[in-house]
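job 3f2a | input accepted
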Amino acid sequence: MDLFDKISKTMGGPIGQHQEWSHGYFSFPRLEGELGPHMMFNGKEHLVWSLNNYLGLANHPEVREADAKAAADFGMAYPMGARMMSGNSKHHEELEIGLAKFVGKEAGFLLNYGYQGMVSIIDALVDRNDVIVYDAESHACIIDGVRLHMGKRFVYQHNDVESCAKQLERATRLAEQTGGGILLITEGVFGMSGAQGKLKEINDLKKKYNFRLLVDDAHGFGTMGENGRGTHEEQDCIDGVDVYFGTFAKSMAGIGAFVASSKAIISYLRYNMRSQTFAKALPMPMVMGLEKRFELLKSKPELRKNLWTVAKALQKGLVEHGFDIGITNTMVTPVFLKGDLNEATSLTMDLRENYGIFCSIVVYPVIPKGLIELRLIPTAVHTLEDVERTIDAFSEVAVKLKDGFYKEKKMAVA
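job 3f2a | predicted structure (414 res):
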């Protein structure tokens, strides 16, 4: 069979198969205007709950000024080349030193992108003799990193410490045969459900098993813990996390990521992460912009306070109105409803076209058939009025869903 013929028959896989009718509206939508809780979509102003701009830094005036000044001073090309060869600078080094100290580690290393960074961290840390144990609902970047592993890997049931212990038992027996080590990977905050990973309980398993813990805290960095240092601060197990990964795409509203650990491990990663060795360094305007974002993250705790005020009001109001928000114990707010794909799309279109509410829709195969998830991402720049408006809208569409309105009527984009 011709390769392209095979691809055309699959119609783009489980998500891409819907592209003919979903593209530009449900997938690859265009949000326009100033980044924030109110943006333009499909020619109308919408209240937006789909941006991971947790602390509202995307359009903070000091951030915009720092970004613009750095772009004017350095342009977008500087520094030129990979950091190992010709793309290093004191700003890159100062930022990674500050980040490492903030999350309680000896050293840090900046990464060009979060996704490829996590893939490359896993690839660098393990060889064919080592064993990986990971959570069943790990982010795609972790899954892709695990797929690169040429050795054995064991998956445990999501956030199930007992299941994790069983897989560690299997991994230990195998590692004794191969002479390798064990890397356990989980997340600080699971981005779809909003549940915290059980970092403290998993770390306690080190009393019985010999493994190292890698935590992807993309959603937790800057939002979780008394000082925003991350989910490991929230759970009082900073020392128990051996390798900490944070991204700039969430609370810092930027591009890139960082990894933090002991000086020895960071030195090893610095010289062995292929995604960094063979890729251009982060441009100076982004690095200097990140310095400003990091400064504000540390110096303005009111931003994190505002985020949590909005998140708690949103979640409390939804629960009081009978909505199922799952097991979230973070700011990520899923709303679970029962319905098929047609009901899911029609309900979402009703929210957007008639209520001006834009939120992400999640359906099978990401979640089980028969369920609809509307995922809300509160930020520090949303208001309690935004919360009230959203709960009122959700309450109305929930009644329509229950009465079969969306089953009987297939809405069309104007």
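job 3f2a | The chain has 17 helices and 14 strands.
job 3f2a | closed
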